[in-house]
Structure formats: structure tokens, C-alpha cells
Amino acid sequence: MATRSNYNKTISATTLRVGEVRFSYVYVMAPHKSAQDGKEKYSIQILLPKDDRLAKAMIDSAVEAAVENGITSKWNGKRPVAAKLKLPVRDGDEEYPDDPTYHNMWFFNATANADRRPGVCILEMGELVAPMEMDDIYSGCWGAAVINFYPYSVSGNTGVAVGLNNVIKTRDDERLGGGKRSVETDFGDLVDGGSVLD
Asked: For residues 90 and 137, is the Cβ–Cβ distance under 8 A?
């Protein structure tokens, strides 16, 4: 069985495999409309435990490599001042101090355009298995992701964003956001005894 250190892997200066991480706001089976630009995208929020110092160091290095790329490819040969350079990794304890989901976590969002569906699989008994249902990979489960960091300059905004390439679920955990209610819970009061589905 893989340990946490097996999941982390540098693929290139700006592309990494990170894990084991927790997933939130999971839209990897079908795209959804982005709140930022209104475009259909695949996306996932990745929560990285702060005690995974190796993964954090790898991410910091990949972000810096993306910044260096941006100096020549996006920002006219100059590094933007720190106050105007938006970086992707945020501190869960600082941004959501009252939410236990973010306690002792770094977090960031990764996206892919609607025409570039990420590869999605489940690690099950040492085998890679395709998910069978839309909610096989859900907010709250754990896994690993292959991500890439890239610079951007859009409408005067500069920074580093995260692309989503592939996702693997490694284990289940409590669903975030309350989970799905059953049919019986929602409609059981409308029938005389037994299940709605009897």
C-alpha cells in the first residue's frame, strides 16, 4: 500500500503529483460554470495537511518556477511586485479559522477547461478502477492529483494558477457540505409505513 511519501512526485519544474490530500468542491466527473468567468470548467479544491512539508516544498518550488516563466512569457520581463502577484496556495487556519475542515491545512483550487476532462480513477485493493457513479469521488474523500502551475495576466491581474490533469481517490472520509439526503428522509412522511420505494 502506498504511503504519503509515495504520492508526492515531481514530474517537471511546474508539474507535480501531490497526495495524500483531501478533496473539496469536487467537479471532476462533469464540468460546472465558474463563478469567476462564467465558463464551464472541471475543478477541485485541494486541501494539503500542513505536516506534509515535502509536498509544500515541492509546491513552493513549482510556483516559483511558474513565476520565472511568467516574467518572460506574460509580464514583459519584470516580476510583479508581491502585492500585485496573486499566488494560489492559501492558509486554511487564517482564512477559515472557525471551520474545522481547514484546520491545519493549506488549500488551493485547480481547474481544467471543459474540453480537457481530467483523468479520474479510484485506487481499490491495489488496482486503478474507473469510477462508476457521479459521486464516487466527492467532497471529503482523500486522494492524489497531478497538477501544473502556470502564470497568467488577465485584465491587469497577474498571478499563478493551477491546472488540473488527473485525480485518484485513495480513501473515503466524511462528506463535506452535509452530504446527500435519502429519498426516504425527504418523502417518507408522504406514505403509510414502509419505504417510499417499496
From this structure: no
C-alpha cell at 57: 516544498
- Assigned C-alpha cell, 31: 464540468
Chain segment 28-48, per-residue pLDDT in tens: 999 998 777 788 999 999 999
> Would you call 92 exposed, middle or buried from its count of C-beta atoms within 10 A (0-12, 13-18, 19+)?
buried
| Domain 4-190, classified CATH 2.40.50.140, yes or no | yes
- Grid cell for residue 137: 469521488
So where are the chain's domains? 4-190
CA angle 89, 91, 96 (to 5 degrees): 130
Dihedral class, residue 37 (left if φ above 0, else alpha if ψ from -120 to 50, else beta)? alpha
Angle (nearest 5°) at CA 125 between 163 and 162? 5
**Residue labelled with grid coordinates 414502509:** 194
Which residue from 110, 91, 95, 119 is spatially nearest to 160, judged by alpha carbons? 110
Sort 64 into a burial class: Cβ within 10 Å, 0-12 / 13-18 / 19+: middle
pTM: 0.86
- For the beta carbon of residue 191, count every other beta carbon within 10 angstroms: 12
Which residues have C-beta within 8 Å of that of residue 174, sequence separation ≥ 6? 140
The string of pLDDT tens digits covering residues 111-157 is 999 999 999 999 998 899 999 888 899 999 999 999 999 999 998 89
